[in-house]
Design goal:
Layout (H helix, E strand, L loop, with lengths): L17 E6 L19 E2 L2 E2 H11 L4 E6 L5 H5 L4 H9 L3 H11 L3 E6 L10 H5 L9 E5 L2 E4 L5 H10 L4 E7 L2 H4 L3 E5 L7 E6 L10 E9 L20 H8 L5 E5 L3 E4 L3 H14 L4 H14 L1
Parallel strand pairs: 1-4, 1-6, 4-5, 8-12
Antiparallel strand pairs: 2-3, 6-11, 7-13, 8-11, 9-10, 9-11
Length: about 300
């Protein structure tokens, strides 16, 4: 759609209480570490990546979280379950702060886990379609379990705030990227005379297809209508089952907007991005910042 208008918009803002998070990828760019540990469980200091993803949902008021996992690896599910033996041990040792950290999420959100349906075509739409049976007539957040928008107030909170201000069938999380990254991401094409209405999303575009510096990353808001535009039986053997294809079909008749985040996109999807996220987190935490600076200075001085 060329312009955004609430007139005739069937996607009036509704309360968002549910999120779907993917945690079933192979993590091939981080092998061999991810051979038997999901990349979503790799630690960012003393918490796994998916902890940060879930915490953003919790902070945004999400009440129910559906996590799509691989049937052969239940480490994510185990992480979000209370371990009575561990709690008892920590109580005996009077380590109450650690108990609070362990329980800060587990007791505040209803978790549901669903196995990824590997009979579906490969692609980033596979985990979402696997969770279809748990989505009612409602809007929901959809997140990849290996990335977040980092920064105060960034991420899921600002995505939901945007949705409430500009009710849309789909809201993308957008981030400004340099030219060297544009050919490897899903790039957003904006409607004429708009800075947030989306005309098209092109995955790994050719140079002549790029007309903005905004990439679609890490999270979305959808409602139940997205599934009307997802048909795995139509995916050819040479193609991937892509969320972007469903968005581009829906966009012909409905509002799709992008929330350009004020945060920084961080992911543990590859070695250097993973390293950057660890550094950013270490520098942001009061309990690690000073000592981490000392470590960095020692290393730099020794070079």
């Amino acid at each position: 759609m060329g312009t955004y208008s609430l007139i005739g918009n069937t996607s009036m803002s509704r309360v968002i209480n549910k999120a779907v998070i993917t945690a079933a990828g192979l993590g091939t760019r981080l092998l061999p570490a991810t051979k038997n540990v999901p990349k979503e469980m790799l630690p960012i200091l003393n918490k796994p990546m998916i902890h940060y993803v879930v915490k953003q949902c919790l902070d945004a008021g999400i009440k129910q979280i559906i996590i799509v996992i691989d049937k052969d690896n239940t480490a994510v599910k185990d992480y979000f379950e209370i371990d009575p033996k561990l709690i008892s041990y920590l109580q005996q040792k009077n380590k109450l702060r650690l108990i609070e950290e362990i329980q800060e999420i587990c007791n505040k959100v209803e978790f549901k886990f669903v196995f990824q349906d590997t009979s579906l075509p490969y692609g980033n739409a596979r985990p979402l379609y696997s969770a279809k049976g748990l989505i009612d007539q409602e809007p929901f957040v959809y997140m990849y379990g290996d990335g977040i928008m980092f920064g105060e107030g960034a991420g899921v909170c600002e995505l939901i705030n945007h949705y409430q201000k500009y009710p849309s069938k789909v809201v993308l999380t957008g981030t400004v990227v340099p030219p060297k990254q544009m050919l490897t991401l899903g790039m957003v094409r904006l409607a004429e005379n708009s800075d947030f209405v989306v005309k098209e999303v092109i995955e790994k575009p050719k140079p002549d297809q790029i007309d903005s510096n905004i990439a679609s990353v890490c999270s979305y808001i959808f409602d139940e209508s997205i599934f009307e535009f997802m048909d795995p039986s139509n995916v050819q053997p040479s193609e991937e089952f892509q969320i972007q294809d469903a968005i581009n079909k829906l966009i012909q008749n409905e509002n799709v907007t992008v929330c350009i985040s004020k945060g920084k996109f961080l992911t543990n999807g590859d070695i250097f991005s993973y390293l950057e996220m660890i550094i950013e987190e270490a520098l942001s935490r009061p309990d690690t910042r000073e000592e981490f600076f000392k470590i960095l200075n020692r290393i730099v001085d020794s070079l």
